[in-house]
Design brief:
248 residues; mainly alpha
Length: 248
């Protein structure tokens, strides 16, 4: 670890949003004076954001599995109105009607195209919670978080070119994907994936590069990326294996 134990605990508090006023002053001082501290913050933000993205996928799949089980038991009437389905009969109260309507069509469809797989697995790479709390000066990330991707793109380009933030290219690539500029997303991810980065961050680059290939119908390239992620046994290993099975 390139920072002291005290600095490490400051970063943890920052990620958890539990900095006291005194802690915040210490944190700001370290950010201003220590390149190693800034690097550690960026890496921990990358890990945290990536794990949150994985958790979202897991939550979605848990909901899907609930409905798959009920579908197997023929508890969802065929050709019946979804709205009239009695959700209270056996389905956990925490599963809302909105969630059901959002995913019910999924269970009647077999995935056979790269677009289908992309739409199932793609989740926008999230910003750090500090952005939502208004504790960042990065207008690029504020616009990105507000889903104003066209406005965010030129600022994200500037952010990527003027800093060593490992996450900047990932945010830019996601903004391109959100605006259907898939080739630009692929170019950004491919150009930056081989540069020095932490293990987790490297997997985030590969994951979104694979998804971008899917979106652009480049199945051979996509499979190569997902095979590599499967072999790495990282946070996207299981997801990559699932995608490879669906693409067969």
């Amino acid at each position: 670890m390139s920072v002291t134990e005290e600095q490490y605990h400051l970063i943890v508090k920052y990620i958890d949003q539990t900095l006291s006023k005194e802690d915040q002053n210490l944190f700001d001082n370290n950010i201003a004076k220590s390149a190693a501290f800034r690097k550690e913050v960026e890496q921990m933000e990358a890990v945290t954001a990536g794990l949150k993205a994985v958790e979202k996928l897991e939550e979605i799949n848990e909901i899907k599995e609930v409905f798959k089980e009920f579908d197997k038991e023929d508890q969802v009437p065929k050709n019946k109105s979804l709205i009239s389905f009695p959700l209270g009969l056996g389905i956990a109260a925490s599963v809302s009607l909105i969630a059901f309507l959002a995913y019910a069509s999924f269970f009647k469809t077999s995935f056979s195209t790269s677009d289908d797989v992309f739409n199932e697995y793609y989740e926008l790479f999230p910003v750090n919670e500090q952005v939502r709390a208004g504790n960042t000066s990065s207008q690029a990330l504020v616009l990105y978080d507000a889903q104003k991707y066209e406005e965010a793109i030129p600022l994200l380009v500037k952010m990527m070119n003027s800093s060593k933030n490992e996450l900047a290219p990932i945010y830019l690539a996601n903004a391109y994907l959100q605006t259907n500029k898939t080739d630009e997303a692929i170019s950004i991810l491919r150009d930056n994936i081989s540069q020095e980065s932490s293990g987790y961050t490297s997997q985030f680059y590969q994951w979104y590069l694979g998804l971008a290939f899917l979106k652009s119908q480049k199945l051979v390239d996509a499979k190569k990326v997902f095979i590599n992620l499967t072999n790495e046994k990282g946070v996207y290993s299981n997801r990559s294996q699932e995608i490879l099975v669906k693409l067969e």
